[in-house]
Every structure is written in structure tokens, then in C-alpha cells.
Design a protein that fits this description.
Blueprint lengths: L1 E5 H14 L5 E6 L7 E5 L13 H13 L3 E9 L8 H6 L6 E6 L7 E8 L2 E10 L4
Parallel strand pairs: 1-7, 4-5
Antiparallel strand pairs: 2-3, 2-4, 5-6, 6-7
Bound molecules: zinc ion (ZN).
Length: 138
């Protein structure tokens, strides 16, 4: 499958990853249920860990409310790997909360040029998602 995002969202997620480094950054993605990402919510990683993340539950709630007000839903999550490749870890797979979500991972194994990759995680199976970053999405 393909998920479309605005080009600026890639920068937004990478900026958040740098701001949280060496801890993992995290955040939520919202859009219409058919899949394009329209809103990015950078959130606080309450674990303050370099190998794991938990989104601040209050920020999670306010992201749901904001998405709701825009007639959207939470359709995915992003987080960073401060020292490793942008591929879901065993923990990411075991904690993946929703089979309909897209999981974006910012890989910072090359600190100077982080990568952003997307995945679907269903029943423990990882499938890579095609990400299209566009100048404008409708
Ligand atoms: Zn991870």
C-alpha cells in the first residue's frame, strides 16, 4: 500500500527526532480513514528512553480530540531509532496497537541523513509501506 504525506511532514518528524536525540521521539498521525496523512502531532516520550517509547497519554488524548474536530482519525504513529536503522524492532512489533495503522520509523543510524520508512504491522508480520511525500496533498 501507499501512504501520502506532505513533504513538510518528513522534515517535521526528522526535526522532532533531532530534538529528542539521544532518546526516541514519537508522535501521532491523523487523516481521513482512507489513508493520507493530513496532521502530524509530535508528542513527548514519557519513557525518556533511547530504545523504547510511550506517548504521553494526555498528548495522545488531545491529538484524538484535535483529529476528531477536523473530522479525521488517528491513522498511524511515528517514532525514531536514535542509533539504528528505521525498521520496526521486536518490541515495536509486539506493542503495535492497531493493524490498520501505518508505522513510520525515523532511522538515525546515519545521524547526518536520517531516513523515514513506513510499515504495516499485522499479526506480527511487517510489510513495508510506500511513502509518497508530496508538495501538496488534497
Ligand atoms: Zn522502534
Amino acid at each position: 500500500m501507499t501512504t501520502r504525506l506532505a513533504a513538510g511532514m518528513r522534515e517535521q518528524m526528522i526535526k522532532h527526532a533531532y530534538a529528542c536525540h539521544p532518546e526516541e521521539s514519537c508522535g501521532l498521525l491523523a487523516g481521513p480513514s482512507d489513508g493520507d496523512v493530513q496532521l502530524v502531532f509530535p508528542t513527548t516520550n514519557i519513557l525518556r528512553s533511547s530504545t523504547n517509547y510511550t506517548i504521553d497519554p494526555r498528548e495522545h488524548l488531545s491529538a484524538i480530540r484535535e483529529a476528531d474536530a477536523a473530522e479525521m482519525e488517528i491513522i498511524g504513529v511515528f517514532h525514531s531509532h536514535p542509533h539504528t536503522v528505521g525498521y520496526p524492532s521486536v518490541t515495536d512489533v509486539s506493542l503495535a496497537p492497531d493493524p490498520t495503522w501505518v508505522y513510520l520509523v525515523v532511522g538515525m543510524e546515519n545521524y547526518e541523513s536520517p531516513s523515514v520508512r513506513g510499515f504495516r504491522i499485522r499479526d506480527g508480520e511487517i510489510t513495508e509501506e510506500v511513502l509518497e511525500f508530496e508538495e501538496s496533498i488534497t
